[in-house]
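Working notes for the structural subgroup meeting. M.R. asked for a predicted model of this chain before we commit to crystallization trials. I am recording the input and output together here so anyone reviewing the notebook later can reproduce the run.

Input as submitted:
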Amino acid sequence: MHGAYALAVAGQGEAFFVAGVDYGVDLVSARDAGVNMAVSRLIDVPLANGGMERVFATRRFDREGAPKYT
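Returned structure, recorded in token form:
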């Protein structure tokens, strides 16, 4: 996974599975719209407290060879 990615993480108090829901909604929406979705995946990241955070990562298609927008 190289390049720029947008990450979606659960907010404070949200459940572990929220990133998976985001991922699923994006997949279904892209399919229903007839478009190809950018390279995306769920990543489980270990936390310092021994817990786990699930992150939804999707490749930024708008930054190919372009300067970073802020």
